[in-house]
Specification:
The complex is a heterodimer. Chain A has helices at residues 21-29, 63-66; strands at 11-17, 37-43, 49-54, 57-62, 69-73. Chain A is of the alpha+beta class. The longest helix of chain B is centred in the C-terminal third of the chain and has 43 residues, at 445-487. Chain B starts with a strand and ends with a helix. The chains are: A alpha+beta, B alpha/beta.
């Protein structure tokens, strides 16, 4: 499933990131990498933006970017 | 005296600037979101090494925060290009101990540069509170470089860090090491051994050279290519890469090394960090549950803004009356000392004192507004609002991050234009730059306070201020949409942003920020505004004309004023402003406002104190304005001030940030046209409603 499909407080593991190199580098440098565990913390109205917790860091993503991240719910 | 150049690098918002302030007593701007430092800044301090008694002059370069050494943002570009191309002795890598693993990713990249590195484990006090314990000796042995626990707020480790800088400077070469997977380590050893056997002379350790070769670093290849050793080396590298490809089942070297760095960072964290207790639900998350609530988030934010403007007006108006009265008394005293009718008395009292006084009067309001903005910047709430508003902003063609420069714009447009650098996409950046002016800056506040106080009464003035600011902001959004649809079409920048932990800023930090702003405001009043006031006084008093005989004293004054240089300028531009219900005095005030918005108030102060046709008991500027300006014209004036071009200084910065003078010309026409049209509409609607 995709990251933006998770519900609040769902935990998941990143399976794949399907983004161009720039975005991928960006995500990587925030610690968003394959096999890392994350938790969906919050989302804004109509899920336009979501907030995830990854290794203690809170990161905000737009839904369209989150859609490029394949995760497995745990 | 020896000179040491230190490059201070780290991820955004790890406290680099705070650390420098702690080391050297400098006063760099500090915030709690990424991108506060957008340019590198240099700070110099002197140090005496007591053991060897050598004096050092340490130059610290504060580099903008970079999540990694890529070129995603402007900050990362600045940092990367400095680290790769400039001359420096040591990198001090500032690490946020509370986000240890993510920070180690950058550390790994820095270690790979082959320079001397010191790791400062910053924010140690916060890490302790969160139950994070880092074994710095263990980490030091893993990374091969000194690791020092520091805290800018408690000053822990500051002197150790200073000493380490000297110690490391005196070492011949870096001792840093990044350990890779065994199959890569084998190849590194092969290459290093070969280089050693052949006695190749290298500035950096063989190990680093070997890694650079394996990473296909272009410069290293170019350099080695001309060496005789190259012929043999070529085969060794070819074999090495082949082995690596087989092991990783991939031929993408960049990806292979990225994975390696992650593995190393994770490993280093596992070995050096321990969590004393499982982190309970942290304070940040509890606050976030309320502040970024789906439904309540935005209303809460609006409430904060409303509260800020209420405070700005209500609290600010208390000392305002006293300041106004003080300058009125000062002017009268000067006149009684220098003689009522001399030119000198008029210059000092009507020119200098009225002009400067009119601006100083608003200092309390400015201080409160800047205090609010400083709190917004330093607590970490700013990033939350960007998160809340991104969806909404995106509809208007703006980026959630645009919010940060826009809010800064409520304070002053100059730093706001600079803050727009955090936007990577040039189109997003240009749109943001174009609408920053719609966020009314602090210097426009006096004008609003003056007019709101004069025309709406004390009770509702705070609300009026809020309406002015919000409608300015909404208008800005609308302009953004128009620009996005017709001018700057194109791809959007992705929104990926760190939400910093909430921090209660120290009183000292807030004090410094507000104090610096207040000081610069007063400085401006004492220099620029003073000069402008004198200029306006001259322009409004000369040339001397003989008034017709049949006028009374007040009419004579008015006649003289109308025939002065200023009157002529005002009259010349009157046709342009007449449809907006403004007389020549208001026209002149607006025109002088192109230099700085504070001058608008001081011009009004000078003009209306000279043409004093109101009764003597009510001599305050507010009363003068109320008596002389019709309500509808006042509304039109406010609307015009809200929209037209910011001050000269901001215009310069705008042109620089936008990348050309032509943009300033566009901005001038866009803002003036919008200001005129909306002001015209506002004037006529108000006239229709009130019938005045």
């Amino acid at each position: 499933m995709k990251l933006d499909e998770l519900n609040i407080n769902d935990k998941a593991i990143i399976v794949d990131i399907d983004a161009d190199k720039t975005l991928k580098d960006r995500l990587n440098s925030f610690g968003i990498v394959k096999n890392e565990e994350l938790t969906l913390k919050s989302s804004s109205l109509a899920k336009q933006t979501i907030e995830i917790d990854i290794d203690g860091t809170l990161i905000a993503l737009r839904a369209s970017e989150a859609h490029k991240i394949e995760v497995k719910k745990i | 005296m020896e000179q040491i150049t230190v490059a201070l690098a780290g991820q955004p918002n790890v406290g680099k600037s705070s650390l420098i302030n702690a080391i050297s007593n400098a006063k760099l701007k500090v915030g709690n979101f990424s991108g506060v430092t957008v340019d590198k800044t240099e700070v110099v301090y002197k140090l005496c090494d007591e053991v060897k008694c050598t004096d050092y002059e340490v130059h610290i370069i504060d580099l903008p925060g970079a999540y990694s050494l890529t070129e995603y943002t402007i900050e990362e570009k600045v940092t990367k290009s400095f680290l790769l191309n400039e001359e420096y002795d040591i990198i001090v890598n500032v690490v946020d101990s509370t986000h240890f693993q993510r920070n180690l990713l950058l550390t790994t990249q820095l270690l790979e540069l082959g320079k001397k590195v010191i790791v400062a484990l910053n924010m140690n006090d916060e890490a302790q509170k969160e139950g994070i314990e880092i074994d710095e000796k263990q980490l030091s042995s893993i990374l091969g470089v000194p690791c020092i626990k520091t805290s800018a707020s408690t000053k822990e480790g500051i002197s150790e860090l200073k000493q380490a800088i000297v110690d490391v400077y005196n070492k011949p070469q870096t001792t840093s090491k990044v350990i890779y997977s065994d199959f890569i380590e084998e190849e590194i050893e092969n290459i290093s051994n070969f280089l050693q056997d052949r006695g190749y002379k290298s500035d950096i350790p063989y190990r680093h050279l070997a890694v650079k070769l394996l990473k296909e670093d272009k410069d290293t290849y170019l350099k080695l290519h001309d060496e005789p050793i190259w012929i043999e080396l070529q085969d060794i590298i070819k074999d090495a890469l082949h082995h690596i490809y087989i092991h990783t089942n991939s031929k993408n070297l960049e990806e292979i090394f990225t994975d390696e760095r992650f593995a190393f960072a994770k490993g280093a964290k596992m070995e050096a960090m321990s969590l004393r207790s499982m982190r309970a639900k942290s304070v940040t998350q509890k606050i976030d549950n309320i502040l970024i609530d789906k439904i309540w988030g935005i209303p809460i934010f609006l409430f904060f803004m409303w509260g800020l403007f209420q405070l700005t007006f209500e609290l600010g108006s208390i000392p305002m009356d006293y300041i106004d009265a003080f300058f009125g008394w000062l002017g009268d005293s000067v006149k009684s000392i220098l003689g009522e009718d001399t030119q000198l008395a008029s210059l000092v009292a009507d020119g200098m004192i009225s002009g400067v006084g009119a601006v100083v009067m608003f200092l309390p309001n400015i201080v409160i507004l800047f205090l609010g903005i400083a709190l917004l910047e330093t607590t970490g709430y700013m990033a939350r609002v960007a998160f809340l508003l991104d969806g909404f902003f995106h509809k208007f063609g703006l980026h959630g991050k645009s919010f940060i420069p826009l809010v800064t714009g409520f304070g002053c447009s100059v730093p706001a234009y600079m803050a727009a650098r955090t936007l990577k996409n040039p189109k997003d950046k240009l749109i943001t730059l174009f609408i920053i002016g719609f966020m009314s800056c602090g210097a426009r506040l006096p004008i609003y306070v003056l007019f709101a106080g004069a025309f709406f009464g004390q009770e509702s003035a705070g609300n009026i201020l809020f309406v002015i600011y919000i409608s300015g902001a909404l208008l800005g959004l609308l302009m953004a949409k128009i620009l996005k649809t017709f001018v700057f079409k194109g791809e959007d920048e992705p929104f990926v942003m760190e939400m910093p932990k909430y921090r209660l800023p120290s009183a000292k930090l807030i004090w410094h920020t507000v104090y610096a702003q207040a000081k610069s405001y007063l400085n401006k009043a004492g220099t620029f505004i003073l000069a402008a006031s004198i200029l306006i006084w001259f322009a409004s008093n000369y040339p001397k004309v003989d008034a017709p005989q049949n006028l009374d004293a007040n009419q004579v004054k008015l006649y003289e004023l109308e025939h002065s240089y200023l009157g002529k300028i005002g009259h010349a531009s009157e046709p342009f402003f007449e449809p907006l219900g403004m007389d020549w005095r208001m026209s002149v005030a607006l025109e002088t406002g192109l230099a700085a918005k504070e001058v608008v108030v001081s011009t009004l102060g000078v003009l209306y104190s000279l043409g004093d046709e109101v009764d003597e008991e009510n001599s305050g500027l507010i009363a003068q304005i109320k008596a002389n300006i019709p309500f509808a014209s006042a509304i039109a004036f406010i609307v015009f001030v809200m929209i037209y071009l910011p001050c000269l200084a901001a215009s310069m910065v705008f042109a620089k940030e936008a990348g050309g003078w032509k943009y300033l010309v566009y901005l001038f026409f866009m803002t003036t046209a919008t200001a005129w049209i909306l002001s015209f509409v506002a004037y006529n609607i108000t006239k229709l409603i009130t019938g005045v």
